[in-house]
Amino acid sequence: MTEILNPRERFGLLVIDEKPDRCNIIPLITSHAATVAGIKLKEYYTDGEAMAKAQITAIEEYEHDAISIFSEVGIIAEAMGSEFNYPDDDLPVLRIPALTKFDIDKLKIPDPNKDSRLPVYLEAIEYAYSAVGDKIPILAYVPAPFTTGMMLSDPNQFLLDTIRNPEQIKKIIEISLEAAIEFSYEIINAGGLPILVDPLASGSVISPKAYQEFALPGEQGLIKFLHRYDFDVILHICGDTTPILDLLLLTGADLISLDKVELNLAIERLAPKMRIIGNFNTTKLGFGSPDGIASQVREMVKHGIKAEKGYIASTGCEVPIRAPTGNVKVFISAAKEAGWFLD
Amino acid sequence: MKSTWFEVARPQKIDLNDWSQHFRLVRDEQIKEFNYYHNPEWGIYLSPPATFMVYGARELKRLKFDNSLASLRMWGFVFNESERLFRAKQMGKRVIATMGDLGTVPVIIMAFPNCIPFYPECIWWTPFFKESTVLLDTATELGIPEAACFSKATLAAFHKKAYFPKPDLIFASTGASCDDYSCIMQLVNDLGYEMLWLEIPFRRHNDEQYPDRFEEYLISEYERVWNKMVELTVINDKTGLIPSIKKANRLRSLAERIKQLTYEAPITPLPALELMTIEFGNLYGYADLDEWLDIVEMINETVAKRVEKGIGVLKQNAIPIAWITPSADPLLLNLVEDCGLRIVGTEYVINQALVPIEENVEPFRALARSFMKASLIGSTQERIKRIIEGVKNERIKGVLVTNMLGCSHCAMETRLIEKMLSKVPVLSIDVPVPFGITEQLRTRIAAFAETLR
Ligand code: SF4
Known about the structure:
heterodimer; A: alpha/beta; TIM Barrel; two-stranded antiparallel ribbon; 48% helix; 12% strand; globular; B: 4-stranded parallel sheet
């Protein structure tokens, strides 16, 4: 099986509803790239060039189909005033949420070129784009407004306030949406394709009703902004989204990245309108045996490529930071084998 | 009404970041207003350069563009062509590749309902817009000799099937045209694509039977094209040729008018890059002729208004020059203007697509006559006749000739052109590979501009 297309060409065909040589394979290789490149996580998420180089090393190693500029979901909230600890070899940890320090009226829309680590991401995008952007899509993950809202607040309080003080939550989400739009705008100018991540809007965290009332409008707002550019928009939500499958259709996303959902069910409900991305269990990637991974990935891809508008073989969540590289390689080669379209 | 920005903005060349900023002021309704194949669902194309940059057209980060809404619309449409061709196929239209004749066979194709002609060789801009050698390297792997020009990207595009869909038919014109491109077409044929070969005659003014013999010959070739199209579509209605010729003429006259307005205005109302894109649009309307006509009308209005107001995009003292052979790298056109030059004449080897097609003779004869104006099928002397006239009446102060890497024509012709244009300074430059423009090249162009000044 000789590959004819590069990842850029392959992704380009997917978004115009054409079959490439094989299905796109984009496991969520984010901070795991630091492990592949052999650098400390702190360096990865505080130095744009290091992040880009790690991503490029990872894509050279694995030969998957997109670069994923991302470390963690607090990045916009941090630029708006939340404080994080930077462990030397772990991801940032929320220390003081902005809204525990000051009032909502003091929240400011950050300048992505200046504030906090947003410039790190932009630098990473610029670097990766000029290095490999002709051949490889540069995906840049943007925390959706609901997730950012929660990272601006004491998480428990935030969830309680969805019931006690919904107007306040909506206000936070509105501001977070504006911040996400500004960040996306700069990501685009740098050469990245913004993709939305809303892990805290997961069915494992909030009810379908809360999703509809609080998370969905933020996702819709950001997707509407990106549609003005005529982009095909990817939305990723972690955890179990089975209870909100029908609501996902209302987001306007063109590609939906799923985690703990029965793939066939998702295909049945969503595939006539959306392209499906997913959804290999990342715990298995971290701890499974190569043989087990290979057969389960093949099985997943066999089902996935039945999605009528297209399918991307992926992991349900981020590839664990210290997942064995051998396992990731097995994932990719099994997906390549099962996702081959040409005769 | 926020988007009145377009109406009040001073004409100028702006970069990608500026366009992104201005695009924020474009209303949603305006974005939805323009669509290709009249499809509002997926046919929208009014996007800023950033959209196409994100999808891999890296040179857009460095190019400067005209700041009118008409030009924004034009770029969105042009960059959207690959998607458009795939969509055409998905919606049941016939996609017909016309190779090598540059401007005439598409007029025949467009006489058939739901048939979309396109030129695969126009992919040669892609490596430059993407600043990428992917297509050129693939072509080399497929067996093209190293010393072949950038049009070898065509072969790679056929191989990859990711830049345009598999055509329903391919008409390949060979003969007294470019031998290098004929080789490329042969290799496309070898990939398993079936083609109908057409022979292009050589223009011999000293032939006693010229032009009748050539016209008759070309008419018989066009009959073959017609018959093949009838076979494909099961439609045989030659009256369709009349509106098709009329549309082609409408486009040709509009493009000519824009060129004349631009060339003659005291201040250049439209940058050379946009003007070249319009000129090339004459070949086939970028795969949706009706929409392209509408766009060119809009540009025409913009240019006319600017000329009327005496405003434009370059300084008034920009020095007028002519450009021979297309630039290949769009950035060169920017560069030349940055050095204080303005383009007031071109010879982009597509003369056959610029001249009006006669409407009062039998359609195939009219097409044959217009095709016989083709630049590549006659002498160099004829090719640059108009440029020489421009030099004589002092409209053109200098001439820039671009040589393509690996183009045997360019290499052979440039020395001749320099000799024939001995009364005017000529700068001939080799177009480097994608992303290859060096400081040295900039300095040469700047020095040329200084000499002219
Ligand atoms: S650039 Fe030269 S060699 Fe290449 S297709 Fe054109 S005329 Fe032929």
